[in-house]
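Please, structure for the following, as C-alpha cells.
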Amino acid sequence: MSEETGAFNLSHRQIMVVLPGLMMAMLLAMLDQLIVSTALPRIVGDLGGVTHLSWVVTAYVLASTVTTPFYGKLGDMYGRKKFFIAAIIIFLAGSALSGLAQNMDQLITFRAIQGLGAGGLMVGAMATIGEIVPPRERGKYMGYMMVIMMVATIGGPLLGGWITQSFSWRWIFYINLPLGGAALIYLFTTLQLPKRRVEHRIDYLGGVLLAVFSAAVILVATWGGTQYAWGSAPVLGLAAVAVVALVAFGYVETRAEEPMLPLHVFRNRNFSLTMVLTFFVGLGMFGAMTFLPFYQQTVQGASPTASGLLLTPMMVASMITSVVAGQLVTRTGRYKMFPVMGGAIMAVGMFLLTNLGSHTSRLDSGLFYVVLGLGMGFLMQMVSLISQNSVEMKDMGVASSARMYFQQIGGSLGVAAFGALFTNRMTAAMGPLAKMGGAKAGSGASLDPSTITTLPPAIKQVAFHAIATGVQDVFWAVLPTAVIIFVLALFIRHVPLRGRAAPGAPEEAAPPAAEVDFVA
C-alpha cells in the first residue's frame, strides 16, 4: 500500500494476514454486550442497585455512540492504526475495572470507560477493511464478518451464561483481556496502514455538539415512558437540547476546516440513501428483535441460553446470503439488486413474525427467522460496501463511523418506541388477570420468565396471550420500516466499484457528486 496515497496494493495473502486481528476486534465488540446482558440478574444480586440496572447498558451504549464519529474522523486525519490500538487499550482497561467493581456506581462508571473504547472497535475494523480491500473485491470478505456476527450472537448468551454459572459474573469482563490482548499484539505487529497528517485544526466544537445531540437522543429514548413521562419536563428539555445541538452542529460543520462529519459526503446520493437506510435498519431490526428473547423465554418456555440458540436459523441464513452476495459482487461488480432484495425479503420476514402467537411452535418461528435472516444477509454488509464506495479514501473513516452512528441512534429510538408499544399492548391484554386472581401480574410491570412459571395454568395462558399480542403489535409497527428500506433501496444508483490501484498510481477517487447527486 502506498504511503502517500493509501491506494489498494495489498495482495489477498497480505489481507488474510491482517484479517484475523480485525475479526478478533470485531468479536470483542459484539460479544461484550451479549455476554453482559445474560449476567445482569447476578450482578444486581451481588452489587444491589436494581434501580440503576439500566445504566449498566445505557452508560456503555452512550459512550460508544458519542465516540464513534471521533474515531472515524481522527483516523482519517492522523492514521487509522494508532486510534484503533488506543480503542482496544481503553476497552481492555474498562473491562478490567468493570470486573473489579465493588458497587453499582463503580460498575456504571467503568462500563462508560469500556464504551469509550468500544466506539472505536467496529469503526476501526470496518474502516481498515475499507482501506486495505478495494470495493470490487470486498464482497468475498463479507462472509468472514457474518461468521463473526453469528458466533457473537449465538455464542454470547451461551458463553455469558456458562461463565456466570461456573465462575462469577466478574469473569464476563475478565474474559475480554486475553482475547483483546491477542488482538492488540496481532494488529500491532501485522497492521501496516498509510501514515498521514492533515494540517487542519480538529473540529472540537462540532464533535462536542454531535456528542450533546447523541447523548440527548439516547437519554430521551432511555428515560421516555419509563423513568419519566413522555410529556415531562426532563424529556421535553432533552428533546429541545437535541434539536438545538443538531441545528448548531449543522451550522458549525459548514464552516469548519476539517469538519467532524463533512456535510459534503451527504451530497452523494448513494451515501445519503445508505445512511437513512441504516437508520431504519437500526430502528426496525434492532428495535423489534429486542423483544424476541422475552417471547422465547416465556411463551415458548426456553431458557436464557436456549433463547440464543433459537436465533441460530436466522444467523445461518444471514451468513449464507451474505457470502453469496459477496461472491456475486466480486465477480460481476453489480450490487444494487442485493439491498433491494434484502429489503423485500425483510418485509416478508417481518410480516411472518406478526403471526407469532401463544401457540406458535419453535419450528414455525424458526422458519420465520430464516426468512428474516435471508433479507439481513443481502442487506447489512452491502450497505457498508455502498457507503464506503461513495466517498474518497480520505473520508473512509467518516463513512464507516457514520454507518455505525446512524444504526446506533436508530436502534436506541427503536427500542424506546417499540418498548413503549410492547408494554402498553401487553398490559392492556393482561386486564383479565386481575379478575382471575393475578392482579400483580396483571400490571405487566413485574412479569418475567421466572414469574410466568409460578402462575396457575389458566392465568398463565392469559399471560402468554398478552405477551404474544404485544410482540405481534411490535412487528406490525416495524413492518412499515422494512417497506421503507425496500423503497429506499430502489433509489440506489449503480456506480462502478473502485478496483485495485496499480502500484504507484494515485488513489482512484469516488465518483464525483455530480454523477450521483439527487438531482437527476
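The two ends are 36 Å apart (CA to CA). Residues 298 and 449 are 5 Å apart (CA to CA).
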